Amino acid sequence: MSKVTRIGILTVSDRASAGVYEDISGKTIIDTLNAYLTSDWEPVYRLVPDEARQIEQALEYLVDEVGCCLVVTTGGTGPSERDVTPEATEAVCDRLMPGFGELMRAESLKYVPTAILSRQIAGLRGSSLIINLPGQPRAIRQCLEAVFPAVPYCIDLMDGPYLGCNDAVIKAFRPGA
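^ thats the sequence. predicted structure below, dont judge the formating
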């Protein structure tokens, strides 16, 4: 029997965490990953306000205690004073993976000129990959579509679980495959 892979979904939003509105962004990530992945996986969902320490604690919990090989965040990547997700992510990461942010911004620029305002990053904590996504559902899908082909191989390189993908929806890149 294979172990179920855990993937962290972290929504960062003052208003959603206060119950002002429903978190559609976190659900968009889960729906998108359900379409992409053929491996058994379970989302471990967290919702926190735009507070650096709470974001850091949620990331540490998802990686260190739950053992998520991948954590995908949404929200808090813009230029407003309350947008601190990239700083909180960098604070808990051992190393950054700048190509993810670069590619996501390049992809988003195809749709909106304000993509240059996005500050999302990605990094490694232990043997886990953390990726910041924007907060809008359409932008989430666009960014995930751009970067996800590299995610399974990144997890492979860190001796994480094998992430099988639905090739009809998204094709993971693995050298020699």
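Residues 5-157 form a domain with the Molybdenum Cofactor Biosythetic Enzyme; Chain A fold (CATH 3.40.980.10).
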